[in-house]
Design goal:
By secondary structure, this protein is α/β, with parallel strands linked by helices. The protein has 2 domains: 135 residues, 3-Layer(aba) Sandwich (Rossmann fold), CATH 3.40.50; 125 residues, Dihydrodipicolinate Reductase, domain 2 (2-Layer Sandwich), CATH 3.30.360.10. 39% of the residues lie in helices and 27% in strands. α3 packs parallel to α4. It binds 1,4-dihydronicotinamide adenine dinucleotide and biliverdine IX alpha. Biliverdine IX alpha (BLA) binds next to loops.
């Protein structure tokens, strides 16, 4: 059994507590046991889970793993604290808000011999799995991925190429290695309007564009326009809900890693994908700031 603590009780943290208390039957998640949660608010009890102080969680011999579900801005610090005291860590994406911090945290995890797992539920949705099937084997001519969503506080969420890393993760998982050719950022501060546009080239020199647009009240949505040599794909597959919740799927993956049931090759491929996306996010940020 691995004792677990959840840090940060917002949308993601609440779902983590729910899933830790109700693991999927006969799945690796049954090897995780919720010991308590850490929150800055005084909550005492949450779904029968017990609130504990951060210091206590870091010291506790009953806790083997921490689920970091705080705002992006806090990820680096929390991940570092728990790795330093020899705990395994699951962190919600993005793992950090700079490439330097991300590489540093992986090094620390390896030094300590602990699992560092970054949640990427955007790759686990039925819609994405279907999209991946539709794209597989096709040759890209050019493509656009346009995301819209509500306003995010950048002090908490970080630069949009990091808070929007799930879109980068789609593009890299679909089309392989990318290089950033240019990136711009448009902002109307008084309206909390923000639009990031990044241009890439694939390894086959095909152009890809990512737009991340946010404003108060803007609907959370994604649009694609992918031209292939065989035709155009401009609607995302409609998809049913996964029979196993996304956070539960992710928790199973983490538990499998703790149990040593994931091969070195798989671990390495995942780490490389995550760092590749973080590198792109960093590169986009730099280009926008120039
Ligand atoms: N909501 C979702 O569907 C998904 C969220 N995520 C990621 O999960 C993380 C959290 O997102 P949400 O739950 O949506 O945000 P949220 O704003 O609902 O929750 C964040 C919580 O962390 C708490 N917090 C911040 N700093 C803290 C600290 N130092 N100690 C203890 N608690 C602290 C905040 O008070 C808040 O309750 C983000 O990194 C986000 O990118 C990832 C995938 C999906
Ligand atoms: C209803 C308000 C709502 C909020 C505040 C919300 C927040 C939210 N959803 C996210 C991703 C995500 N959120 C979901 C799914 C959900 N997330 C949910 O909170 C719910 C209810 C679902 C279920 C449909 C998925 C699948 C992702 C991964 C990125 C994606 O594919 O869009 C993220 C991570 C950053 C990002 O990728 O943009 C945040 C902060 N999502 C919401 O839907």
């Amino acid at each position: 059994m691995f004792g677990a603590v959840v840090v940060g009780i917002g949308i993601a943290g609440s779902m983590r507590i729910r899933d830790l208390l109700n693991p999927l039957q006969s799945s690796p998640s049954e090897s995780l046991k919720l010991i308590g949660f850490v929150s800055r608010r005084k909550l005492d009890q949450f779904n029968n889970a017990k609130q504990i102080e951060l210091d206590e969680a870091l010291k506790s011999k009953d806790i083997d793993a921490a689920f970091i579900c705080t705002d992006n801005q806090n990820h680096e610090e929390s991940v570092r604290h728990f790795l330093e005291v020899g705990k395994h860590v699951l962190v919600e994406y993005p793992m950090a808000l700079s490439a330097e911090a991300a590489y540093d945290l992986w090094r620390l995890a390896e030094q300590k011999g602990k699992v560092l797992h970054v949640e990427h539920i955007e790759l686990l949705t039925e819609q994405y799995k279907q999209l991946k099937k539709e794209v597989q084997g096709k040759k890209l001519v050019e493509g656009v991925l346009h995301f819209t969503g509500g306003h995010l506080d950048e002090n908490l969420s970080g630069f949009p190429s990091f808070s929007g890393i799930a879109r980068l993760s789609w593009l890299v998982d679909l089309f392989g290695d990318l290089i950033v050719t240019s990136a711009t950022r448009e902002e109307q501060k008084e309206l909390n309007y923000s639009k990031l546009t990044a241009h890439f080239l694939t390894a086959e020199n095909r152009p890809l564009t990512w737009v991340e647009e946010r404003a108060p009240g803007m609907k959370r949505d994604k649009h694609i326009h992918f031209s292939f040599t065989t035709g155009i794909l401009d609607t995302l597959p409609s998809s049913s809900r996964a029979s196993v919740g996304l956070f539960m799927q992710d928790q199973n993956l983490f538990a499998k890693k703790l149990l040593g049931q994931v091969t070195r090759e798989e671990l390495l491929a995942e780490k490389q994908r995550i760092l590749k996306c973080i590198d792109l996010a960093e590169e986009i940020k730099k280009k926008c700031e120039h």
